[in-house]
Amino acid sequence: MAIAVNTKAPLFTLKRRKDGAFEEISLADNIGKKKTVLIFIPAAFSSICQDELCSISAGLDQYAALGAEVLGISVDNPFALEVWGNMANIGFPLLSDANKEVIAAYDIVCDDFIGYKGVAKRSAFVIDEEGTVIYSWSSDDARVLPPFDELKAVL
Questions:
Q1: Tell me: the pLDDT tens digits for 127-155?
Q2: 39 CB-near residues (< 8 Å, 6+ apart)
């Protein structure tokens, strides 16, 4: 079961590659400043994940207007996420949780994704400025997308 609403969000620092260089992004950087939307996906380059992230990217200004930054997280390596993000024109950071520590902390480890173990369940969280989880959604069915209208209503 995913981490519950009204609990402190597990802090993390993850890497991404951008323009061929590594960059670390920490959830703690947003605490006291803005809300954070965490979007966990099972696998880069999959059609459902691409549709999901491209849809979010196309409406990124809506999240910014609501005072939130969007971060995408996958257990894929940062090299693959950089290539995929560039190919799909995804406009927000794609972070690599290759060590699977963040998906464990948020309790969203999928034990069977088309035969693969230890990927992220498709999940969405909103973390407020104080670092508290104010929205928590996760699905055991990777084909089901988060209810984005519900998520935006929380923002």
A1: 999 999 999 999 988 888 899 999 999 99
A2: 52, 53, 56, 70, 71, 72, 73, 123, 124, 146
Return the SS3 of 16.
Answer: strand
DSSP 50-78: HHHHHHHHHTHHHHHHTTEEEEEEESS-H
| pTM (two decimals) | 0.94
* CB distance 146 to 122 below 8 Å: yes
Of 29, 48, 66, 65, nearest to 119 (Cα)? Answer: 48
Active site residues: 49
Joined together, the tokens standing for residue 131 give 């670092």
Among 79, 152, 151, which residue's Cα sits nearest to residue 122?
A: 151
What pLDDT was estimated at residue 21? 95
Cβ neighbours for 126, distance < 8 A, ≥ 6 positions apart: 35, 36, 37, 38, 68, 133, 134, 135, 151, 154, 155
Is the CB of residue 54 less than 8 Å from the CB of residue 44?
A: no
Distance from chain centroid for Cα 120? 9
